[in-house]
Fold each of these.
Amino acid sequence: MYIANIILPLMVLGIVMYGVYKKVDVFDVFIVGVKEGLSMSLQIFPTILAMIVSVNIFLKSNLLQDITIYLQPIFNFLNFPTEILPLAILRPISGSSSLIMLNNILSTYGVDSFIGRVASVIQGSTDTTIYILGLYFGSVGVKKIKYSLLVGLLADLSCIIISLIVVSILF
Amino acid sequence: MVNYIWAFFIIVGILYSFFSGNTDIINTEIISSASLSVNMILTILPIMCLWLGLMNIAKESGLLEIISKKISPFIKILFPEIPKNHEALGLICSNIVMNMLGLGNAATPFGLKAMKSMQSLNKNKDIASRSMITFLVINTASVTIIPTTVISFRLANGASNPADIVLASIITTFLSCLFGLVLDRICYIIWRRKYVYS
């Protein structure tokens, strides 16, 4: 956390200093980039709106929560801690909802519990697959995404399994 | 595919809400999620502008090119379709570095520019190119060295040592990313074969 606090200013410093050293019109060039950022934000806005509306309708329908309840016996049988199941399912779909879920898990089971640690590792070591695919492919107008969703979701699944193993070995 | 996923979430969500009696919540959610997206773009917009501004300096001064050249041999294994010293490599690298540092918001503008750059190399603009998929696999698996958000949540919940999960997190993120990359290669080979023979 503290390292990240130093790295950011250092990067800004490095970029600007190198620009001045190479006699670039830093201010003008910066403005050109900002303009590009402005148009890029406008360009991705429709995609963001579309993704958020559809994902939120899905989340608020409570389907996921209900599925979790039905799946519980199966996962109990497999010796999989069902407490992290809601987080595991939400993680690829919505970043903000899974953060809320992580917070619930941390306050219910404790930060230093096995469940709390596994949940933290899952949240920290994977990203919102569906949102990323929608945003990035949407931004360039790609319609056929081939096997990317399959690979993304299987990588998320592997992350959950690996985190269970790693946390039980390390702690 | 994106079309189907999008429609799936909406149709299944609304139908299930009828079934479970959640219609009131969905009713308000449709409107409020639309305004939520405005909030979101407003948080992204300044960061995006700032980073693309700085990146433009890095590009004009040749810094981006130096970085791409340094990292080229390594990234080239992952992205064989991108020509050597192409701008896309530098952008991909910047995106990965930002993600590694846990600066997800700063990573997004680089990622979007990288996609744009890869799209210019793409022969069929409707279909995802191989490099795009590899890039997004790395992104969704999110190779993070310092998971800043998680650490702050652990701190807020009173962890004695909030950063004690960092090592476990690094091991997990690298292994799952490696798994994703191997799977990506396998899928690519299977897909290409199917495409050639059919």
Amino acid sequence: MKKLNYLLIALCIAGCQAASDIAPEATPLLQTKASSLAFSRTESINLTDLDIIHPTKIIRADSLFVILTPKSPYRFAVYDTRSGEVHRLVPAGYGEGEGLYYLTLHRQGNTVSSLDFGTGRLVEIDLEQCCQPGYAPQFTDLTTNGKTPLGAVRAGNRIISTGIYTDGRYCVSDPESRFDQFSVAYPDCADPNLTDSLKSVFYASNCLVTNPAATRIACANMQYGCLDICDIEGERLTRVNEVHLTRPAAVFRHSRPAGKAIWHPVAYTRNNLFGFCDLAVSDDCIYALYSGRTLREYSNNVDKGRVIFLFDWNGAHLRTLHIPNSCSSITYDSENNTLYALSHENGQDEIITLNL
Amino acid sequence: MTKKKKFILTGIITAALGMLFINFVFTPNSGISPLAFENVEALAQQEGSASHSQCIETGTICFGWDANGHPIQYPGLKPAF
């Protein structure tokens, strides 16, 4: 009878234990070299008042803000802080001079670029001319040689892209000669048994940036926290470091389900910790806006965050900045050492100024 | 063993088993571990129509293949269930 009692007690303890939480653990970098960063309310720019609807990304360049508005009839807005004028660029559509789906913005010199992952065309906006009447951005088709690009940036005469690639994670292209050179294996976080095709889907959503000298590229995954840094050496890239903040929680499907018209090979569980929302760069460091949120808790606001990690261009963590507002984008102005962030609080879309 | 003891014993066993059942059923994502590489029936049941309504609205890319093996991509995120 005594043994039976012990068994019953053990059963009770097992039954009463707290439900296990299989969500990946938050990265310890959240609390490492961490400090808080405030912003001045008087320096904020209310985009809603400027009739800039559903902005998702921003780039600061001198007195201009280039703003990605992926749901608007025009996909980009350029706000001139000096004149107060707003210029609209790239009407929505599949046609010539039009654009469909954009995810990120990148600035290299006097050009802001963004890949239309719906049509595979890179749009480049000349900051010196974009406010002139009749200005039209330049489009470059990256679907040559059967490629499916999902993210791209220009580095000098070449364009570096990621996409559904199986010969390497990155492709360096010269659009004029239609030359393509693939390089760098996919990061090691996922199961090594995954095909490169599945890995390319798994790593589909990225924010790509180069350093100002265009000698290094950083690729931050949005759906989980992987930061990949590579050297740009002519037509080839060489990995410098890959930083994994958390372990991804994804479900893979290896084959098409019978009778299904469209199938999705990679899906994310509701406990998956989202990764990077946006990157901004300086000569010395990478500013990485981090989500760390789960679908379960934040639903479709997982693509925003209140944390900025600073890494050097070797991928070493320097600092962690906690910001008061939920933001979807950051941009760095080297002239006055200032970060600007696109804030979404209380139904207001604002650009806030974060003095470092 | 008296009837009273049997009654108490049965009650305790039933309660323990009940708690085990509740724990198993309501554990978040029970049965799906990170990087699960098996086919998931829940996925299959949701898929099939040529619509991106399977993806929720976030600032990422929802990627799939159509019946002819062509890639299709649109803004969104494919949740596991």
Amino acid sequence: MTASAAPVEPLLSIRDLEAHFQTQVGLVKAVDGVDIDIFPGECAGVVGESGSGKSVTFLSVLGLVRPPGWIAGGSIRFDGRELTALTRRELRRVRGKEIAMTFQDALTSLNPALTVGSQILEVLREHTPADGARPAEAQALEMLSLVGIPEPAIRMRQYPHEFSGGMRQRIMIAIALACRPKLLIADEPTSALDVTIQAQVLDLLMALRHRLGMTVVLITHDLGLVAEYCTRVIVMYAGQVVEQGPTRSVIDDPAHPYTRGLIGSIPRLSRLGEKIRPIEGQVPELVRLADECRFRARCPVAEARCGARIPMSDLGGGREARCVRPGGRR
Amino acid sequence: MTAVDVRPPLVETRSLGKTFDTRKGLFGRLLVRGRHLIQALNNVNLTVDRGTTLGLIGESGCGKSTLARVLLRLQEPSRGRIIFDGEDITEAGPPRMRELRRRMQIIFQDPYASLNPRKTVEQIVSLPLRVHEKLARKATRDRVADMLERVGLKAAHLNRFPHQFSGGQRQRIGVARALILKPEFVICDEAVSALDVSIQAQILHLLQELGRDLKLTFLFISHNLSVVGYVSDRVAVMYLGEVVEIGPARAMLVDPRHPYTQSLLAAVPRLDAASGRRRTLLSGDLPSPLDPPSGCRFHTRCPHVMAHCRVAAPPLGELSAGHSVACHLYSGQRPAGEAS
């Protein structure tokens, strides 16, 4: 935790974001009033379970929420510009060049019919003017060796299916970083990978972050990964941010009952023999949500006050929680 | 005070092996040259004691799921023996296997793919009962309703279809189906891996509770070391079809001896991590099982590789009571090529 004496201007500032989906069962508010700031140079972790809105929030940043979904309100400022006000063409110039995103499943995210080399070249040609001195091919080659692909000149001409899962994830990182973006959004980059390969890919990502001076948002369901790699954590539940703060202090002393429940649900190798304590019940349906704390039905310390819309409380030290009695135990 | 259980272990494998032929059809057999055999299991010796949980860990393609399927004889072993409750079932015929399968069940990973979407919960959970016990309709329904309550669902759910349930509830249905015949041996093949953390914890709790109440013996397969550590009495680690280390859960997860187990543990992201910890001990990918490395199969990635690891495969040798490891680091100064 660094002392935040001089206010640092966030690189990305999301305010009151609303992303809605029209479904057969009704209107789903997948993202409902989300405020998130991402500061330059940091690696922030966004954690939450399925349906928490963590992915949709960042798809909104890239303008990738498509019908039946849409951005129903709020503001997304990136590096001094309002992204929600940009035209599609303008947004295209930001996406891939200044903000890049990688996805969980490298096999379905890469085009199976194109060589990996041509997929890196595509990004470079889209965003960088022709440069005789540094042809795109050389840059693509450099990217592949940067992400640790052996024999890049040969591998350039191969197709995604000829690579292992870990290598495909590296290629996706190479594509994402080809234009040296300021912000990389990594959505579950390693969830499909075995644990030893996961460690390789994330260690690589962190090395590149330092080398290229990038800001990284790591979206994951794995709080352990956040503890390992992120200085700050943002916890989401049912479309809202419920807690955020410096990772260590949030994990050691969670303020929101959901964060406490989540941490209590994870078996720990360092505490063999200690019982886990599951959160009872399940995530509420996102249609027809009442104006109340979304965790109320599962919360062990819920009280009458929880029946209203709960604002974020500032807890000091860079920490916030959406709870009427943050840190309070029964 | 407690009577010593003199009965043999509930499940035992002796030199179990399974080889798959990757060639398909007549043309495949005629046309594919070179390597086409995958040794999914090689010389696997395991025992699972009654009322205990053996955790099985390893990365994709290490043979964990093949072992599960071969144990239940959903796939036939290529070599070795399977002993269940003292009986060699390797060649048991279909009528005998049918009787035995009442006593051994499996819970799968994907609660979406493993339940028939066209059947009601009652039909799904009662199927094993209808096959194995010819009960009256009413009695069947009561048994199913009772089982649903035990797994945390309600009798009111009997007539619903799988799509009306969340992932966690579906996995409860899978658990109910597996336990309705009161089996003795239950294989959980990545049974909680597809679930969100808070739901995963609920199902782990449920399995532990039912395991205790129904005196179940589990083989718990998972790639998640923390989960395996939580549920297991003993843990076995597989690499490219072979067991490389097996021992008491605590010893395995606190003081692992095989370099592969050590690297797996180092790679696990931890909540109480000191940031900047080095997680990567292993470089490179898993070698192709079509062409496994000579000698010790782990030698291509091992940080402690020695010359004779490349030529001689280390046997699984006991280090301390109940803790065995297949690694030359612990086999004394065994000269290279002793086997020959």
Amino acid sequence: MHSFTDFFSFSNANVVYVVLGMICINASSALVGTFAFLRKRSLIGDAVAHSLLPGICFGYLVAGEKNPVLLLAGAFLTGWISIFLVDYIVRHSRLKQDTAIGVVLSSFFALGVVLLTYIQKTGSGNHAGLDHFLFGQAAAITRDEVSLFVVILVIILTVVVVFYRQLVLLSFNPEYAATIGLPVRLFEFVLTSLTVLAIAAGIQALGVILISALIITPAAAARLWTHNLKWLMLLAVVISIFCGVTGAYISYARTAMPTGPWVVVTLSLITLGSICFAPRRGFVSRYYIRRKNSRKITDENILKTIFKLPGFQNQDTELTFTRVNLTEIRPFDTKELHRGIDRLIRRGLIQKSGDDFVMTTSGRKESARIVKLHRLWEQYLLRRTRIDTDHVHSGAEAIEHIITPEIEAELERELGIKGIPEDDY
Amino acid sequence: MKQDIHAIEVHNLTVSYDGRPVLWDIDFNLECGKIIGVIGPNGSGKTTSLKAIMGLLKPSSGFVKIFGKSLDEVRDRVAYVPQRESVDWDFPASVLDVVLMGRYRGTNLFRRSNKTDLEIALQSIAKVGLTEFKDRQISQLSGGQQQRVFIARALAQQADLYLMDEPFVGVDAATESAILSLLQEMKNQGKTVLIIHHDLQTVSDYFDYLVLLNTRLIAKGEPHEVLTKENLSNAYGGQLTLLSKIVDLIRQNEFPVREKGVDL
Amino acid sequence: MNDFFTILTASIVAINCALLGVFLLLRKMAMVGDAISHAVLPGIVIAYYFSGEKGSVLLLVGATLSGVLATFVIDLFSRKARVQGDAAIGMTYTLLFAVGMILIATLMQGNADIDQECVLYGDIALVNMDKIIIDDNLYIGPRALYTELVAGLVVFGSIIVGFKGFKLLSFNEDFAKSVGIKTSRWHYYLMGLVALTTVVAFEVVGAVLVVGFLIIPPATAQLVTHKLKAMLVWACVFGVLAVIAGYMAAVYFNVSITGAMVTVSGSVFALVFGIMRLRRSKSAKSVIAAEI
């Protein structure tokens, strides 16, 4: 716990750099990652990330030291070349995109490994820390690098804010964008450059292999929570920053721990959580929706069955019935029938009187409504399709539960029927 | 030959994709020895119906019988011709390689193709008029020739029922007439062919029987019965807006298309 | 002699990878292969932790399973959780690889057998340390060579016996199903073979660079031939070529052996690609010239 207060009091200048660095890196990559995700080009990030390694080594060889600007420039260069090569291979051969990505990323990465071992073995100058680029060490972020990351974030933010509408159009429908005169290739170039820039900034903390998670995962996780693009971006950025700082803290608290893996693991945990708990799309809420549906179906089936009881049409006398009366007409599952009737009593559609049940006025209305919906749908099927009459009933059986008042009104209008249709199949 | 056995019986078939019913309560019987067309607008579930009949998609309710039996019992008597675009024609294979695949079965995968297989494959290639191309790589064929390769592969299966997904799409006139005369020949041999088709102009010339789909079965019968103004406007004329609204509601609310325990 | 055994071992790695890579490529699953090779890492570390040795059967089985698990998780993500396909691949392999790295940092502290470097490029230079000596003094090669040979027999045998199945699965899965072939069994069998191969190759070439062996030689082969059997042969040729030339280059420049092999492999791809482009544009030009 000691390290926790140490870390989050930000009394240590290094900690400040690390946290600031992680915020910039993760915000940058989550922003460009959202567009990559929307363009279904998530794995391009993978190719770029692996391809940065030789660029970094070139940068080092040219500078003779760990000069952040030169390393970044080298990384940017090879990253860009890799994207260009993937596109070139796909366009000029019968190889598919994922094959091209695989070829380019492993070739470049291998070249990087060769250069890295070359640098290590020739042993000239201070090459310590180059291998941080492999697995990421957030603690090694320096003040100079933080200023660089801030600049990168500002560039990315500016472009995204200024050209927001163009970028959205490009991601959503590039063909249409071209027809209305958007310089598609230019914006593709811009977007690609931003992606390479964000990844190049991030490898210091995440390492070349895991950085692609920063591009892919935040957007994928955020997508489960919202349909709105602006919220999607914001949420992706927030999730990513949270995980970045968590990862940085863990590797600060236990020096043997590399940062990258922990960032990725927290990111993945959040994604898994989203898959389970996100509203509407999550497993849990889908389970609840289904349960609600099946209860609704049972309740309404009970009401429909009550409609068929001999006394229903007689409005003046009280309609009493037992469970057996109902099961004689429709085979209900005993447990479900019990629970359904309990729910209907709570809704005030049925009243209990001794061992029997009595229909209330609102209950009668509801019964009639369900039957009406069922028969309206039967009529619709007959009118619009050549359905065999012996299939009409079963075809309408599930649908009466889902017809909304608006659709009910439209059905009445389209079929020209008022009230409950006479015909019953 | 027993006349009362249908080539295909489809009973209350419902197939959902991602919670959305793509095919809904489809019900029809198809007689043997006919050329049958499946028509309907784009996205109306034509391909889905073929895949469901062929057991490639699991229906959420309903069932299919072929020659009165379950598919697994009569699989050797059914040949399936997928859409041409569904495969990568850059695949390293020759015409003969692909047509020989028509002789593959779940049971003979581990033995080499024998002489009979080879003969049947060569005959099938000859029937579609590709003998001079038999060693050509499939990537170097025209669209029409590729379609003929697929049909030759189906012929090599020596089936009694053929299911073809859009065989006339993107083919040249020569291929179209070649396929048509093959169809006549197959019909004369008592085979049944079910074809997905999109061109309403030609349907009444090509088919003995039609199935008109738009998520639901709109109509079935002989061409003159099916191709009425009312049916066509129901299927193509945007008359089914309510149906598609219901379909959307079903998907959004994770609603079951069919209640459990409801008899078919 | 040591050089010979190293090259021989790496060549068998290359052949195993090339054979399976051809089918991965044709199934458009090159990146799934990439994902599997990263995803075997946690399996390797855990199994190693419990068994304490590299060559154990437990390690082989455990790690292979974790590779197959990866394909299963990718499937689950994309089908059940409705995450788009390539995002699902990226998420799965980064997660499993990250877990592997964390396990190395916690369980393997101070253990030289499995560390970060060996994950990256394997211990090909150390392959000869673990010798098999019979009759007290007859050295018949490193243990890794024999592990590779056994894996090679499994891969080679499977492809010979299941050639028709793999071919049909790769060309037209729906059709395969329609003639009654259980395609999902074939699919997981292929994925299992890929996982097994990457696990076995781990100690020789590492978990990351093995992708270069899986994808680049088959991709090069696809450029030069239109025939499946020829593609398999060419992929093996390109793979072995890269191993030999890469080894010599690595020794000459004193750099990572595995890195050099894959770099050479990539260069061969670039060379072949260039030649094919040149030939095509030449023939195109001559056609135009003839028309004029």
